[in-house]
Structure formats: C-alpha cells, structure tokens
Amino acid sequence: MNALSKTLAFATAVAAASAAFAAAASLALGSQSLSAGNAAVTSCGISSLGATRRVDNSGSVAQVTVRGIPAACAGETLSLTLVDGSGAALASASQAVAGTTATFSSLPAVQATSLAGYRFAVTGA
Amino acid sequence: MKRLLPIVAIAAAAGCATAGFAASLNVSSWHLWAGSQTLAKTPCTVAGAAADTFVNQASPTAANGGATTLDVLADGGSQRWAFLRFDLSSCAIPAGGGVDQATLRLYVTRPPARSFTLTLTRVVSSWTTGLTWNAAQSLSFAPSSTDQTASGTSAGWVTFTVTGDVDDVVQGFSTNNGWYLTASGSTQNANKDLIQLSSSSAGSNAPQLVLTYAS
After folding, report:
1. Considering the entire predicted model, what is its pTM?
2. pLDDT tens column, B142-152
3. Which residue, B181, B194, B54, B189, is CA-closest to B112?
4. What H or E segment, with its residue span, contains residue A101?
5. Between A and B, how many CB-CB pairs are < 8 A?
6. CB contact burial B73-95 (16+ within 10 A = b; e otherwise)
7. What gap in Å lies between CA B179 and CA B158, rounded to an integer?
8. Which chain A residues contact residue B215 at CB under 8 A?
9. From B99, which residue of chain A is nearest by alpha-carbon distance?
10. Beta-carbon contacts of residue A76 (< 8 Å; ≥ 6 apart)
11. Closest CA to B180 of B141, B150, B143
12. Which one is predicted more confidently, B138 or A14?
C-alpha cells in the first residue's frame, strides 16, 4: 500500500504539473491579477450594431459608419468585415472604440454592388 | 509496482490532455460580442424629372421650364445649359439605406453634327423651372463634374453614372438640387451643333434615374 500511495502521489503531481503548464500557456495576461476558475465572457452592453456606408461616383464604398455602440465599450476594439453574398470577406478593419459611432474610411476598395452585409466583433478587457 | 505503471501513464495522459485543451483556448478578453447585418438590394426607376429646364445665353432673361426639350450648346456666345432634378420619394428608401448604383439616362432627340462631350455636374444651389441664364450665373456648383459622356451624332439614350451624388442625397450628405448639363467642344455653327434631349414635358423618352439601393 505504501508503494501504491507513492505512485498515486507521483501520478497526481504529474497531472497537476501538466495542467498548470497548460493553463499558463493559454492565458494572455493583460492585467496584474490572475485568478483561477470559471469567468463568464460578457459584452459591454451591445444588443445590436448597424452600419451605413457612403459610396462614391465610381460605386466604391468610401466609408462605413457603425452606429449603436454603447458608451461602456469605449477603449475596446471594434472589428468590421464587409462580406459578399456568399459570406466571403471583401475587406476588414479594426479600430479602438472612441464614441457611440465609429467611422472606417480607409477600407480596401469594395464595390457597393458586391457588398451584401457586415460582420462586427467587439473585444476588450 | 509494475501493476501501477498503467495508472501513472493514465494520470500523465490526463495531464497532457488537459494541456491540449487549455492550449486551444485564447482567453485574452473579458468582453466579447459578435453580430452581423445583412443588406437587402432593391431596384427602383424614377421616370421623369421632378423639375427640368434649360437656360440660353442668347436669351438671358428667358425661362424655359415646360419646354419639351432640354437644350445644350457649347457655343461661346450662345451657350445653353440644361438643369434637372429628381424626386426620390417614390423609391421609398428606408432610413439608413444607401444607393449601390445610380444611372441617369437622357434621350437625345436632336444629335449634333459633330460629337461633343456632355458634362454633368451637381448643382449646390436651389433653382426652379423659372431659372434664367442670368440667374444661373449666381448658382453654386460642385467643384468637379460627376461624369462625362460623348454625345455621339445619332439620336438615342446617353447615360451618366451618378451613384455617389444620389447616395449622398439619400444619406443626407448633400441637398437634392440635381445636376446641370453642359457641352464642350469647338462649336462654329449653333444650328448644327445644338444638342436637344427629351424633357419630362415631352411625353415620351423622359429623363430617367435608374438605381439600386441597399437597406
């Protein structure tokens, strides 16, 4: 039994060390505190976002304005993707949120006739 | 001891499995939200201008609203400019919608003897069908033209791409004051080089604005 206890203790130690190594490898530490356990990932209060685009006379999307961003999202990162009818990305851009609207004006050239929708993502600490 | 080796192996494997699972997570934020918006595309044609007219340098106080033609002439002493504006309300573009594509179609009823370049420019000031040549001189226009096309020397439709101008009106970036049309080229004979297009009062081949909007 003594040998069994030692072996089980050794096995437990190996498993714990592996788990600890895995946790450390997976976390991107952005703050000075770290706690273990489950944490719910929430939004900064967004229920939905909507976008409008401005088109020039050549038919290209000159800028896209995203509206409906809660003030609580300030400082977080808004990612915008323009997609075509099959859902394929036509252009993407990201910028820090600095208000309740965000204007993307340096997008790669996209014809408005090809634009079928937008995808949004907001991430932040 | 040998019987315990499998237990050790299982424990180690469990640890590695945990490592594999954890390594697949990217826990870098506390806030995460994702969503999407799909655009619907709707075609619309506005047949007939809400207002159109032309002004004539040779008759500087004459108003030509209601004429069946829109006259354009490049001649330096007797230039003629055409003006037209469309009412977009019939398209019922919802708030937040924008124009993907817009084409202005004009029908040439009297082609010039030689081909000239027709230039379409957005009008910034407001105007009415009572506009005269003299009054037109004080209007403001966009600093650059919207589009140009060769008039050709035969009757038929000529088209101009006006997507950005119409989109700006729909989205409130500019006021709907329409466009004015001029001709450029070396004109020696006004009778031969006059270009006439169907107005909304002509009864057929009236100006058209063909567009598709997204909402």
Report:
1. 0.78
2. 999 999 998 88
3. B194
4. strand A101-104
5. 163
6. bbbeeebbbbbbbbebeebebee
7. 15
8. none
9. A55
10. A44, A96, A97, A122, A123, A124, A125, B31
11. B141
12. B138
